[in-house]
Every structure is written in C-alpha cells, then in structure tokens.
Design a protein that fits this description.
By secondary structure, the chain is mainly alpha-helical. The chain folds into two domains: about 110 residues, no CATH class; about 50 residues, Winged helix-like DNA-binding domain superfamily/Winged helix DNA-binding domain (Arc Repressor Mutant, subunit A). The longest helix is centred in the middle third of the chain and has 27 residues. The radius of gyration is 18 Å and the shape is elongated.
Length: about 160
C-alpha cells in the first residue's frame, strides 16, 4: 500500500470536502449519529472547512483529520444548541440534561485526534500526562534538554487542541 504524502490542512480539507462521496458521508454521519438536520449539518461542514483553512502544519491522513475536526464541530454544535434551547425555555445552564454519551464521545474524539499528531508527540504527552513524569524526567528519558521538552509539549498540545476544535 502506498504511503500518503503529508498535506497541509487546506489540501486535506479540499481533498475530502470537494469529493461529493466523502462530503455526503460526513453529512450523513452528522444526521444519523447526532440527529443534526441537513441544513445545520451543511453549516457545521462549512464551519469545519473554515477552521481547517486556518490550521498550519501538515496532515498525514487527510480523511481521518477532516473527520476528527468535523466530529468535534458536530459535538460543539449539539452542546451549543442544548444550551441555547435551555436558555429559551427559561432554564439555566445547569438544567441542561447531559448527553448520555458525552464522556464517551469526548474520549472517541480525543482518540481520533491523537491519531493525527505524530507518534513522538503521543509518546511525549503520554510520558508526561499518563505516566506522570515531570518535565525533567521526561527530558532525561527522551535525551533532550528540559527547555526543548517543555516547548515540544506546548506545540504538541497546540496541535491536539487544533484537532479537537
């Protein structure tokens, strides 16, 4: 199997969003999985495309990257619509019923976003956040200066956040 050439987020968005079949699959996913109407699903897709155009860096797997970004936008759309509906009905934010799958959805979105960042970033984030290594210990484990590890963790978190937006 031929390995995919890294693309910019713009190229990734274009390769997925301009393909009618892939676009239809994303829109169908939003309607079936989240119950988002066709017009709203199209708005979420356009919002995803605009967000991807603002991204920097390179993407290894275009379809997975765009899907993770689209899915995160769908979740944000649902959360915003629940809060909006509660405010219109006179309720407070605390009255909004939590989705039964919210935690699971967040875990899935995080797992999908982790597939987008590099394996080096994943290893470094796991060492620091999962294994609980301090920055000094992580620097020693990766044979890198403390400042470089700190800076790399910041960049990795920034990439991860960009995937979850």
């Amino acid at each position: 199997m031929k390995e995919a050439k890294p693309q910019t987020p713009r190229q990734a968005a274009e390769s997925v969003l301009l393909d009618a079949h892939r676009r239809g699959r994303l829109l169908g996913y939003a309607r079936v999985r989240f119950g988002i109407g066709a017009a709203d699903a199209e708005d979420v897709l356009q919002d995803t495309a605009l967000g991807l155009l603002r991204q920097r860096g390179y993407v290894e797997r275009a379809e997975g990257f765009v899907f993770a970004a689209f899915r995160a936008r769908c979740l944000r759309f649902l959360e915003n619509s629940r809060v909006h509906a509660a405010r219109f009905s006179g309720g407070e934010d605390g009255d909004v019923p939590a989705a039964s799958n919210t935690e699971r959805d967040r875990a899935i979105a995080l797992r999908e976003a982790l597939t987008v960042i590099s394996s080096g970033c994943r290893r470094l984030l796991a060492a620091h956040y999962v294994e609980g290594l301090t920055l000094s210990e992580a620097a020693a484990q990766f044979s890198a200066p403390y400042a470089a590890v700190s800076k790399r963790i910041s960049r990795c978190l920034k990439r991860l956040r960009a995937c979850l937006i």
